[in-house]
Write a structure and sequence with these properties.
Layout (H helix, E strand, L loop, with lengths): L6 E5 L3 E6 L15 H12 L9 E2 L8 E7 L2 H12 L4 E9 L6 E11 L4 E5 L7 E12 L3 E8 L6 H9 L22 E9 L6 E5 L25
Parallel strand pairs: 4-10
Antiparallel strand pairs: 1-2, 2-4, 3-4, 5-9, 5-10, 6-7, 6-8, 8-9, 10-11
Length: about 240
């Protein structure tokens, strides 16, 4: 694989925490493009001179256009314990999103029901009784805004496909750069402005609370229009 040296935030014999680049699929898909799971496997295989395939367990995902922090398990027991935390709601994920226009409420909790159209690879907000609908919950807080766009801190309670993008779009404030959900009016040619900036979980063996934070690409539109550093106390990745 070319140009696939990942940014590693932490690793031991149980887990690997890394920064997924935007527009890289989390796992292999029909595009045939290099995926992040394979990149992490290759990194571990080369670094530790492992023969054959290195075991890397994927316990959560990010949409292809979304970048940010992810954790992978290095053995099946660690994967099982991390998945259990996710199922019990003990796996905390926070995102930064830039929306088109400012939400009416500066802070709110959104509860919707979502159905995914596999053919179009798109999620719709539907009535609760709709067949196949899944509950989706998040809360957001407007950190900063100008006349055209707003910076939101989003706390995710459920991990549905395209959840943040679909729920914010349904609210009338699609994510900047999101052509699929109506957020490209001001943003043609720019990346999706959605970034997984913080991940909190319990280490699968030491039981220590692990917190990882990482900045979005601050030099790029639309992040450069906000004081992101003011809201995230962390170190920028090299």
């Amino acid at each position: 694989m070319e140009n696939t040296q990942p940014i590693i935030l932490y690793e031991d014999n149980q887990i690997v925490v890394a920064v997924k680049p935007q527009n890289v699929p989390t796992q292999s898909d029909s595009s045939g493009d290099a995926d992040f799971l394979s990149i992490i496997k290759e990194y571990i295989k080369v670094k530790y001179n492992k023969q054959g395939n290195a075991f890397i367990g994927m316990v959560h995902r990010l949409d292809r256009p979304t970048g940010g922090v992810m954790v992978f398990a290095r053995n099946s027991k660690a994967a099982e314990r991390l998945c259990k935390q996710i199922a019990q709601g003990e796996f905390d994920k926070k995102y930064l999103a830039v929306t088109v226009s400012t939400p009416r409420d500066r802070r709110a909790k959104l509860v919707n029901w979502l159905v995914k159209d596999e053919k179009e690879n798109k999620v719709r907000v539907v009535l609760a009784k709709t067949e196949g609908a899944k509950n989706a919950e998040l809360d957001y807080r407007v950190l900063e805004a100008n006349e055209k766009i707003a910076l939101l801190d989003v706390n995710l309670y459920t991990g549905r496909s395209h959840q943040i993008r679909a729920q914010l779009s349904h609210m009338g404030n699609p994510v900047f750069g999101d052509a699929k959900y109506g957020g490209d009016v001001l943003a043609k040619g720019h990346n999706l402005a959605l970034w997984a900036y913080q991940l909190t979980f319990m280490h699968p063996t030491t039981k220590q609370t692990m917190v990882f934070k990482v900045f979005p690409p601050l030099e790029k539109t639309p992040w450069k229009y906000f004081q992101v550093e003011k809201y995230i106390n962390t170190v920028k990745p090299e």
